[in-house]
Amino acid sequence: MPDQRELATAAALALPRFVGSTALFHAAVAERMGVTPTELHCLHLLHGGVSDSPSELARLLGMSTGAFTRLLDRMARHRLAERAPDPADRRRLVVRPLPDRMAELAELYAPMARFVGERLARFDRRQLTALLEFLTDGTAAAERSTADLPDVTQVITVD
After folding, report:
1. 81-86 and 89-97 beta bridge pairing
2. N or C terminus of the chain: which is more exposed, having fewer CB within 10 Å?
């Protein structure tokens, strides 16, 4: 039976393959829906209730507000999402996913959702807590690491 160090090493080595396979799955879903991976990512943010604010969504996607406006225009043409007045403040717009494409998305994700649900159901409370902590901390670390990457214009030098 592997010891703690061997298990940690195996997990660290398996993680990039898992992330890569997941990225390929999301790209395939986006292709089937006829949208870009970024549009699909935005749809996930909307569906997950992360934000409905155009400026916050732009920030989360690493886009300028102008680029996000163009993305939102494409999403509206693809019937993925719409701009709507904020019910709490009619001066403000919110972004809402549209139900017909959400049903299509749910159908494409159903096999993966079943797998994840079945696997998580086998975890005990301690394992679920550890997994959630890892995912939460990993998300924050990835966001910090992304922000810390050097600007490509600073890296390129001309001789």
Report:
1. antiparallel
2. C
